[in-house]
Automatic annotation (TrEMBL):
Organism phylogeny: Bacteria, Pseudomonadati, Acidobacteriota, Terriglobia, Terriglobales
Family note: Belongs to the PlsX family.
Gene Ontology biological process: fatty acid biosynthetic process; phospholipid biosynthetic process
Role played: Catalyzes the reversible formation of acyl-phosphate (acyl-PO(4)) from acyl-[acyl-carrier-protein] (acyl-ACP). This enzyme utilizes acyl-ACP as fatty acyl donor, but not acyl-CoA.
Species assigned in the record: Granulicella rosea
NCBIfam families: plsX
Record-given protein name: Phosphate acyltransferase
Catalytic activity: a fatty acyl-[ACP] + phosphate = an acyl phosphate + holo-[ACP]
Keywords on record: Acyltransferase, Cytoplasm, Lipid biosynthesis, Lipid metabolism, Phospholipid biosynthesis, Phospholipid metabolism, Transferase
Gene expressing this chain: plsX
Gene3D superfamilies xref list: Isopropylmalate Dehydrogenase
Length: 328
């Protein structure tokens, strides 16, 4: 019930996932049965797929204040879905709804992993090499201390290694310069802590441009910086795509060139398309929670389900707890 076009996007995305992803994928749509059941029946057109409906009488909208809605809407689709994860009736939870409410509900219902003070929201970014990079935190924590950033680095390392398949992820601290002494008090105090970790491939400070040039696999920052960076990236990508589209339509010659290069432009658009990445994992909670974009379409929901399944199969959380366990 979370996306801008809910529940159409969620239903169509679930159908796509069950038809195109792994054979063991089963989807439970959580929300008001009276709304979901007829919409699902129409969308299936008589087909039989492993999709079920779990009734929840309430849902949290984008307009709801997260903290208030989490407390007052006790039968929300978010709370019901996350309870299923906590009770072992679901392997993962995916929402394209209110991000603040999703994070608050996940923290409350699932709790944090041992050794994690604050969960972090991570996002996948495209790079020049084609191998995606990971940026965290992108909004779960506006204020963080050096220990939080160290935990973010460990969580990002585990996710990149076990889900993205990078054997020795390069970890960077997002700052305003590569030198050890650059940055604010938070980055300067965090630097020696990351450098001292024996099992982390810490490469030092990285700058904003390094998120895309294949210099770093995991970039760590506090949620304030990360969210500003993420929103700036989204805006720049939209601007670039719009300007390119306008330029290609400006003259007859450019239109002909666009037609001849349609495949290349299609590949370009795909690499910048948020729907290819599915959603952002909330790392550090005792379960799998993926937060998708509010404008998620069916393709984005399908890929969100794929990411959720990959996360669940990889057993990332056990690795995070082991890495953060105090050494005897």
């Amino acid at each position: 019930m979370g996306s801008d076009k809910a529940p159409e996007s969620e239903i169509q995305g679930a159908i796509l996932a069950c038809r195109t992803l792994e054979s063991d994928i089963r989807v439970r749509l959580v929300g008001p049965e009276g709304t979901l059941a007829p919409a699902l029946k129409t969308a299936l057109r008589g087909a039989r797929l492993p999709i079920e409906i779990v009734h929840a009488s309430e849902w949290i909208s984008m307009e709801d204040k997260a903290a208030q809605a989490v407390r007052s809407k006790r039968d929300s689709s978010m709370r019901v879905g996350l309870k299923m994860v906590r009770e072992g009736r679901a392997a993962a939870f995916l929402t394209a709804g209110n991000t603040g409410a999703a994070m608050a509900t996940a923290k409350m219902v699932l709790g944090s992993l041992a050794g994690v003070d604050r969960p972090a929201l991570a996002t996948i970014l495209p790079t020049m090499s084609g191998q995606p990079s990971l940026l965290l935190d992108v909004g779960a924590n506006v204020d963080s201390d050096p220990e939080n950033l160290v935990q973010f680095a460990v969580m990002g390392h585990m996710y990149a290694q076990n889900v993205l398949g990078i054997s020795s992820p390069r970890i960077g601290l997002l700052s305003i310069g590569e030198e050890d002494t650059k940055g604010n008090s938070l980055t300067r105090d965090t630097f020696p802590l990351l450098k001292a970790l024996p099992n982390l491939n810490f490469i030092g400070n990285v700058e904003g441009r390094d998120l895309f040039n294949n210099r770093v696999d995991v970039a760590v920052c506090d949620g304030f910086v990360g969210n500003v960076a993420l929103k700036s990236i989204e805006g720049a990508a939209k601007l670039f795509s719009t300007l390119l589209r306008e330029s290609l339509k400006s003259t007859v010659t450019s239109q002909v060139g666009a037609l001849l290069s349609r495949r290349a432009f299609s590949d370009f658009k795909k690499r910048l398309d948020y729907s290819e990445y599915g959603g952002a994992p909330l790392l550090g909670v005792r379960g799998v929670c993926i937060v998708g974009h509010g404008s998620s379409n069916a393709k984005a929901i399908m890929n969100g389900i794929r990411v959720a399944a990959e996360f669940a199969h990889a057993e990332v959380n056990a690795g995070i707890e082991a890495a953060l366990r105090p050494q005897a």
